[in-house]
Amino acid sequence: MKILLTGSTGYIGRRLLPDLVNAGHHVVCPVRDSRRFDYEDFSEDFLKSVEVIECDFLNPESLAKLPKYIDAAYYLIHSLTSDSKEFSSLEAQTAEHFNTYIIASTAKQVIYLGGIANDEQLSDHLSSRQNVETILKKSEVSLTVLRSAIIIGSGGASFEIIRDLVEKLPIMIAPKWLNSRCQPIGIANVMEYLIGVLGNEKALNRTFDIGGKDILTYKQMLLQFAEVRGLRRFILTVPVLTIKLSSLWLYLVTSTSYRLARNLVDSMKNEVIARDASINAVVKIKKLSYKESLERTFLKIDQKQIVSSWKDAFSDPNFNQTFLQQLEAPKHGCFKDIKTCAFERNPKEVIDNVWAIGGDRGWYYGNWLWEVRGFIDKLVGGVGLRRGRRSPNDLKGGDALDFWRVLYANKEEGRLLLFAEMKLPGDAWLEFKIKKQGNTNTFIQTATFRPLGLWGRLYWYLVLPFHGFIFKNMAKNLISYTSK
To answer: How far apart (Å, rounded) are the C-alpha atoms in residues 213 and 195?
Structure first.
């Protein structure tokens, strides 16, 4: 079959694509920037079954590039990390534009992954998902809706938030919503359902709730997570934390963004339980328990097989369409701090050090100072340092890296370019590259800052003394570091 897979660079789509190709399908992947579509680890035979087309479902004119002859389509687009005031309208617009395209195509089925919405009063997030479902039904192309509970998998937002809470806080004073019930589902089961309904006549024009084996409160989920990790944790729920205070608490304690924290906390007032079990007769799978899903997830993490992460979603919804075009830091109207070091070591070893920067490895010098900067960033509404990175040793354009975003990553060229997503009175870039001249290798580290007004210039001169020893020692340690 010829399948259109929207959201192919997202958390679900990146995992679904290999399953579709391995099942013998040809997959068309619409992406806003083809540089974010990075599947260099796959074989040439695999890539022969994949077609990447640049377009944007917020720009209906760009959809003319998409093929009209397809058999089915997956709709995996959402704007959960966008500002809460606008994500509903953005999701509605993209669904309407998708409908216009799909009606003109030969598609016989659309598969949509939404959220379980069985309560009468829904959060903004769940209401928006339900509205998208209503819009997609207007196309008259057979629609299969899978309404999912919380998804547990490596790199997933829910998993990472639970992990942050449990591993960092021995005692938690938490909001009353922790007593709400949900039915968490492992990412492996989600993939089985997504593949199982494709071309399945029993699934056409039907809506299914999908959940895992267990029904738990959020409090029970935290405590069982602690059991799996061999930790002892205590949780006290109180009724006084409002949605705003709860969101702020979650934002400060975990690696999530405030937008995502607000949307997730708002959704916790709703019970997310699969009340309709009819999917069991359509797609027969072995449901995983919550603990089984956790154990599988940690196995993937231990094996460094994190395929996708919610952290790679863009923190600024207005930034994501053009940022990868910035393959060079600007040269005019900027302050620069350049450190150069000649070295005799194998360049590949230095590049490996650069590609492991941030996350658990840290920044090679003054890690506590970076942590202080990340904490300050959190306090003023930034992404902070806890966001970490998708993989401990792999980087690609579009990846989140602590409070930076990867603009360009080319190991063969020996060049990495980062853009700062922290709160700043201006824009900042950090570049690492290796230049070879004859028999000499030179490591070049460049910090570039484009100030915004007087405050931007004042900020640069205030931090300049710290740059003098932080960046100098960071460059030296990137060259000399040897993992034990």
So the answer is: 19
Beta strand ranges found along 88-131 (DSSP E)? 109-115
Which residues are bridge partners to 70 per DSSP? Answer: none
Contact 151, 158 (CB under 8 A): yes
Span 418-428, pLDDT tens digits: 998 888 888 88
Q: Tell me the C-alpha distance between 31 and 54, whole Å.
A: 5
- Helix, strand, or coil (residue 12): coil
Q: Is 54 helix (H, G, I), strand (E, B) or coil?
A: strand
User: Cα dihedral angle (247, 248, 251, 257), rounded to 10 degrees?
Assistant: 70
Q: Residue 468 belongs to what H/E stretch?
A: helix 453-480
What type of residue is 93? Q
Contact present, 382 and 421 (Cβ < 8 Å): yes
Instruction: Give the separation between CA 475 and CA 341, rounded to whole angstroms.
Output: 8
CA distance 184 to 210: 9
Round to whole Å and give the CA distance between 42 and 335. Answer: 40
Largest CA distance in the chain: 71
Tell me the per-residue pLDDT of 100-129, one tens digit each, with 9 for 90 and over: 999 999 999 999 998 887 766 666 667 777
What's the pTM value of the predicted model, to 2 decimals?
0.70
Q: Per-residue pLDDT for 391 more than 90?
A: no
- Cβ-contact 293, 185 below 8 angstroms: yes
**In this model, does residue 312 exceed pLDDT 60?**
no
Torsion (CA) 157, 394, 379, 337 in degrees, nearest 10: -160
CA distance 247 to 240: 13
CB 76 within 8 A of CB 20: no
Per the DSSP assignment, residues forming a β-bridge with 54 are 31
pLDDT at 274: 86
